[in-house]
């Protein structure tokens, strides 16, 4: 069952859309706390987002940009702000479609179904990993933490990926080294230590401290 998140401050519209989508076997969640849209997004993990422009606190453009830092999930703007400038701006910052209010629910469903078909040709697509507010974007090797970003090198990215894929579990040094240098015949064990140290310092530049912990004689863990 695909999940759709509705970011619309008119609860009558949100509930109406939600009820209609559920008839088509979509699981829905509509936002009520507009301070925590990204937290809701991370918790719900939707396959599509319906997003209004005019919202409390931050507008839809802001939340579209924030979601795009983490995911390529389809985003459809639904708004009565229908001039060409707003439509172009929405598409430029990462929206996939724009529907002008008021709209026919059958048209909305048709557009959602078409976008779902184009996007999800296979299951299991994951765009990011998250742990304790730290996001690793799997599409562009960028780490995001509290609205700060840093781009990782290939080796830094591989280390973060294997540790976050196994969060809470100790990953042995040999397993990490195999991920990093699987084609090399010999790598000095100290090279991994140098890479881990460099990665930790890089994470600290955006406020991420003590994220990677050493388990002496065993390996490394994020917990």
TrEMBL record:
Pfam families: Response_reg, Trans_reg_C. CDD domains: REC_OmpR_NsrR-like, trans_reg_C. InterPro entries: CheY-like_superfamily (IPR011006), OmpR/PhoB-type_DNA-bd (IPR001867), Sig_transdc_resp-reg_C-effctor (IPR016032), Sig_transdc_resp-reg_receiver (IPR001789), WalR-like (IPR039420), WH-like_DNA-bd_sf (IPR036388). Residues 3-116 form the Response regulatory domain. The modification 4-aspartylphosphate is found at residue 52. SUPFAM superfamilies: C-terminal effector domain of the bipartite response regulators, CheY-like. Keywords: DNA-binding, Phosphoprotein, Transcription, Transcription regulation. Residues 126-223 bind DNA. GO terms for molecular function: phosphorelay response regulator activity; transcription cis-regulatory region binding. It comes from the Bacteria. Residues 126-223 form the OmpR/PhoB-type domain. One of its GO terms (cellular component) is cytosol. GO terms for biological process: regulation of DNA-templated transcription. May play the central regulatory role in sporulation. It may be an element of the effector pathway responsible for the activation of sporulation genes in response to nutritional stress. Spo0A may act in concert with spo0H (a sigma factor) to control the expression of some genes that are critical to the sporulation process. This is Stage 0 sporulation protein A homolog. It comes from Senegalia massiliensis.
